[in-house]
Amino acid sequence: MTVQVVLVHGIRTSASMWRVQAAHLRDRGIPVTAVDLPGHGSRMAEVFTLDEAFATIDRAVRAAALEGPVLLAGHSMGGLLSIDYVGAENPPPVAGFIAASCTAIPRGAGLATYRFLARRFDALPDRGMWLTQRMLAATLPEETRADFGAGGYAFDAQDVALRSLSVLDLLTALARIDVPLWFINGQYDQLRVNERLFTSIAPHAELIVVPRTSHLVTAMRPRVFNALLDLAIATIDARGDLPTASRS
């Protein structure tokens, strides 16, 4: 059966951040679903809640699992949510998992500082979009530069989403994950802060650090990230005995 890929975006952005990856997978004949979380992208008018975020991921995974083994990939907030989801006590039908740019525990002083800076940035004229565009132009290749904002920016969902993440029990979830797992971080990603802790709890996981790359690893080095998706798909293909939708 063909591996099915489900992609979960990070905070403020939307499914559009995965355009290059989705195109690459479709060119290979790999079915792919990129979701919009509540309060983001096509669902901007909704209120972000953890329950609906998890339900969104679960609906996409279970629909895909009817067709074949599922590779789930999440970036930043999407990665944190997906760690908690994959590591549930009753695991979902996921055959492999990529956690990108999310090796940090969203609690305490670090989370409070991030929320403070995000609110200050949001208070700038035009909600800081002039600075955002300059930063993207300076760091992203032309092929991905427009993708992060193509679905709109979820300014209103940002603070409630960040606050919600503090209840996730990521370390317990990581210890339960028994499918192939890849941590993918940019060399200069600020969310590498708990990288050693995460890899010590999930010793079977592979850690891949992409050189000369920041938090936006999927967009800064899209061909590298696409190759890592291919690696994960090949790994799942080689484990052909993995269950699909029957695992619930």
What name goes with the CATH superfamily?
Answer: Alpha/Beta hydrolase fold, catalytic domain
Q: What proportion of the residues is helical, as a percent range?
A: 40-55%
The structural domain count equals: 1
The first-level CATH class is given as Alpha Beta
Overall geometry: globular
| CATH third-tier fold name | Rossmann fold
Rg, rounded, reads: 17 Å
Stretches where pLDDT is under 50 for at least 5 consecutive residues are none
Strand order in the sheet with the most strands = 2-1-3-4-5-6
In quaternary terms, these chains amount to single chain
**How many individual β-strands?**
6
For the report, how would you describe the main beta sheet? 6 strands, parallel
Structure annotation, total helices: 10
Secondary-structure element order, N to C: EHEHEHEHHHHEHEHH
Helix-and-strand structural type: alpha/beta
The end-to-end span amounts to: 18 Å
List keywords for this structure.
single chain; 248 residues; alpha/beta; Rossmann fold; six-stranded parallel β-sheet; 10 helices; 6 strands; globular
Descriptive notes:
The model has no long low-confidence stretch (mean pLDDT 91). The protein has a single domain, classed as 3-Layer(aba) Sandwich (Rossmann fold), CATH 3.40.50. Strand 5, helix 8 and strand 6 form a beta-alpha-beta unit. The protein is globular, with a radius of gyration of 17 Å. It is built from ten helices and six strands. The chain has a six-stranded parallel beta sheet, with helices on both faces. By secondary structure, the chain is α/β, with parallel strands linked by helices. Helix 1 packs across helix 10.
